[in-house]
Design a protein that fits this description.
homodimer, alpha+beta, 19 helices, 56% helix
Chain lengths: 596, 596
């Protein structure tokens, strides 16, 4: 049986001290997110997660979802109450505008809360996450009537939202889409087709489900340029604004999955379902990208959340499990054996996870802050910088954090030996649940391709050069500090390696694109490590300042050590990554397909 | 749904060409394993695996095992027939002595067959593997009467075997063991205690189960020096040699596991069960090590087997799945999209698995050959060399192959995108099944500790220096070959890094043991990569010779390319591993436990 304790101390340290978000009280939402309010909000989220949502996590996995012959889907015991708490507590719309029923808080704060919910119960949080994505698309592209009609009900948790992209023959390549939309005299459309892998496509948590569906209007141009976005409620809304008659959409089956079994993954059959266009004709992909980018950052957060809860349980176990003796002699001579945390390899494993988690959380918060800036600032240069950062870092957060977050859940399970393989221990569920983060919202190979072939060269590589400027400036500032010196030299070297790889890939993209993208996953990892290393520099600098000011706690005192562990044990991989990128794609492309 | 095709071409290439096992026809067993016989044996194993055993793999996972209230355990549909085929076909005793009912073939050949069975159905193969382990311990330490009584029946598959080590409070640290044995007037013992994680501890595949059980004789010295080995049949053997009355051992429960669900993992309760001493009093650990070392090599083989079948299915899918277009323009313009194998990152992923699989197979076969040599040779120097190799390489094969084999099953699943997460696709079962290989028979952290703290320094580091001599000699021989030059330089560098790490760790072991073992996992990986790289040198050299002799096939022509891929994309990690080992344990040990 697993437990969870929200890492409030670390979250506050990042928000208050490292990123000093109180600096931004001039921006919309931030004034309503003062330290007192943040403390209260995060404290309530922690309580709900620890006491109500996490105890449902194993239940959700054990029971899973089930579909009856009428196509109705039952969620696991307790999920209805859990989802109700999220809606009634205002947790679904934490950062949504107040005028549509949201709480109006910054994305940065909502992101911190999101980690806590996802750690506690990822499968349940997915329903809320999809609702948030649907709201984001409606707010950005929907008509005022659509916003008024759907958003408040979704944010209250009375209704929920979905996104419908994938079809059986097309996942990544949405240009192959077949679902069609036929316009009616009243301006509405009739939607027909089959969508698969629809999270929350059918369930018993809410009285209505609002589907956002990509489809092709009759006569639209081929490929993704002919795709439009529609809103299709499961139950049509009657004159009083209530869910009435069933629409022509039904759940054909649900998937049996490796994990996140409490989240219903549905095949949805659209049969002349009534829908309304969201945004403009044939511009559906743009609208969908709003949801997709939000979702990709959310997936990175999910991966961190599983890495965090897996770490907590592994660290506790390592301090309790008595087995063998330290190489240097008994450390707990009064006991039958020493706790396994005396072993260097156990500590190395735990610190590898921890060193990732703290930096990954910082990277996500920093990026959430850029989202807030991009939305709220009135300075066009600042907005451009923030938007550049978001575009560039989104595939890195999705890809690197999910790859490493998954690896961390495996490493945490490993601490339990054979007991980690037993379902009741609960560690293997984190592995299975986290595995989806590498696959959905674009498998990680696609993230690497997006990073190297699209995001990197865009606008003359403006975004990555602005990242280089930031990091170089921080390194230069830190160079005089002897306390930071164990981090500064390795960071400078790794940054140079990233700069070198960048120049090489930009050149290859022009001359031999296959050579460039053969190194795309290695480049994504190289970039990710440097970004995480940069976060450690900022964390350690801040920790040192607080320690110098007389603050003290074992956690604060440990940060410079964990930061040094990061550069010695994780960041050190960058030289191998550069060497691989330089080796390029010669062998990769030369082996004929029939010999593979 | 997954398929399997035994990699016969590659197996024959290794046995016939790379290791030229026909050179050893002077050794016991080898004369009976001529090319014709090997071809027939491997062909039959392939047929049985592909047609009968693999189709049971998904069934076994879906149904799992179940225990009724009498403590009887039912295996999945078809497993009885599958196990019967293994017994009746002589597959359980392929390398066991003919006089006890075995086939008398070399371990090298039995190992090749073992991979095939484990790929096809790992959960089913585990029952046979445990039987082989029990036979090995009985043949080495049992009395002549015990051998005659138990071994032929186990090899025929009428009975099966188990090994009982772990107790609820002790896995790694067997000195904490509590199960006790009380001697009776007739020379037998009464065994009482609880054993957990007993694979095949109870099932319906055979009419009897022969348990090999570690227990402490009343009054024995504390710790592992007071542990003895006993044979305890589930049903006592009557005067006619048939299973009769039930013995005092029963299955208290079975585990719900992440994977290998067709393999029954049992809690066994011994309540005054009748048992007989195997070998000498208080020398149980020695006897058990015979089984344990065999089992550890077997676990490496299992990991390879899952990496292989996962690879096969991923490669097939990558050639069939149409999605998107190549960056360099359509490759299949007549189709709606290109197969995803056109993408460099897909190829890189597949080749990473493939480059590991071929070298891992070679490393296992090379080591199996050393087992045959250690057993059969009359030259004491050759025996010492072979035994040194086995002791040193066993933790590497167990640890490195299971870590990387598991990672490969994840990478293969990744090729399927979201479809890989669906149970029916079958790819996620390989991930879940393979996960156990990192945990059982000593979690991989224990393997790394065994390697660095015990195997490395033993006899003045004689074993690793003999490995260095072999590899250095091969590199020197190959240095003149221009065809081998892309491999030789990187191999020489990586070998130097391993030599450097070895010297450093040997010094630290004497001076600061925690500093040494903080690098144990990195060292294990460094050693593993160099050993796999050495295998690639040998494979490519042999392939080049055959190609020069006019032999040709796409597979043969691809080997030099895949070998080069290995050194550029996998072996290149060695410099990072050395850097981490050099960084040592300072940060690892400095963080106080309460901050972890």
């Amino acid at each position: 049986m697993t437990t969870y304790q929200a890492p409030l101390q670390d979250i506050h340290f990042l928000l208050n001290d490292v990123f000093q978000i109180d600096r931004f009280s001039n921006l919309a939402g931030f004034a309503d997110a003062s330290l007192d309010i943040r403390t209260a909000v995060l404290g309530e989220a922690a309580k709900l997660s620890e006491e109500a949502l996490h105890p449902l996590n194993a239940v959700g996995d054990r029971e899973g979802c089930s579909r009856n012959e009428n196509g109705e889907v039952a969620t696991p015991t307790g999920f209805r109450d859990g989802f109700k708490s999220l809606g009634e507590g205002g947790w679904i719309g934490l950062s949504a505008p107040i005028e549509y029923g949201g709480q109006g808080l910054p994305t940065t704060v909502a992101t911190a809360v999101g980690e806590i919910f996802a750690s506690a119960n990822m499968a349940l949080e997915i329903y809320a996450g999809l609702s948030r994505g649907a709201v984001a698309a409606l707010l950005k592209h929907g008509s005022e009537q659509q916003k008024r009609q759907f958003v408040p009900k979704i944010l209250s948790g009375e209704w929920s939202g979905t996104m419908n992209l994938t079809e059986p023959h097309c996942g990544t390549d949405l240009g192959l889409m077949r679902t069609k939309a036929v316009q009616q005299a009243d301006g509405s459309f009739r939607i027909t087709g089959t969508k698969i892998f629809i999270s929350g496509g059918e369930h018993d948590l809410t009285e209505n489900i609002i589907h956002l569906v990509l489809a092709r209007i009759e006569g639209a141009p081929p490929g993704i340029k002919g795709v439009s976005l529609f809103v299709v409620p499961k139950r049509l809304i009657d004159a009083g604004g209530k869910p009435g008659e069933r629409n022509g959409v039904s759940c054909g089956s649900i998937e049996h999955k490796m994990g996140i079994r409490g989240s219903a993954t549905c095949v949805l059959n659209y049969d002349n379902a009534v829908g309304w266009l969201v945004g403009r004709e044939n511009k559906g992909m743009e609208a969908m990208f709003v949801m997709m980018n939000e979702a990709r950052l959310g997936v990175g957060l999910q991966a961190l959340s599983q890495s965090e809860i897996a770490y907590q349980n592994a660290a506790t176990y390592a301090k309790e499990r008595l087995q063998g003796r330290a190489l240097t002699g008994p450390q707990a001579p009064d006991k039958s054996a020493d706790p396994i945390i005396v072993h260097p390899d156990v500590r190395r494993t735990l610190l590898s996870i921890r060193a990732f988690n703290e930096a990954a959380r910082a990277l996500i918060f920093w990026t959430a802050l850029k989202e807030d800036l991009a939305r709220c600032t009135e300075d066009p240069d600042e907005r451009e910088l923030a938007e550049d950062h978001l575009a560039l870092i989104t595939p890195v957060i999705k890809g690197v954090l999910s790859d490493r977050g998954f690896t961390n859940t495996v490493a945490a399970q490993q601490m339990f030996g054979g007991h980690g393989y037993i379902v009741e221990t609960g560690m293997e569920q984190f592995v299975r649940d986290c595995r989806i983060t590498m696959l959905y919202e674009g498998a990680n190979g696609i993230q690497a391709l997006d990073l190297v072939a699209r995001k990197l060269p865009r606008d003359g590589a403006r975004a990555i050069h602005s990242f280089f400027r930031d990091v170089n400036a921080f390194i230069d500032e830190s160079a005089g500090s002897s306390a930071l010196s164990p981090l500064v030299q390795p960071m400078r070297r790794s940054l140079r390696e990233l700069e070198q790889a960048t120049a090489l890939l930009l050149q290859r993209l022009r001359e031999q694109p296959n050579e460039a993208v053969a190194g795309s996953t290695d480049f994504m990892n190289l970039f990710g490590l440097v970004a995480l290393g940069y976060m450690w520099l900022r964390i350690v600098k801040t920790a040192n300042q607080r320690l110098a000011a007389g603050d003290s706690s074992p956690e604060l005192a440990a940060k410079p050590l964990i930061g040094r562990f990061f550069v010695e044990h994780l960041l050190s991989e960058t030289s191998t990554l550069l060497a691989r990128i330089q080796a390029g794609g010669a062998t990769v492309m030369a082996v004929p397909a029939e010999a593979i």
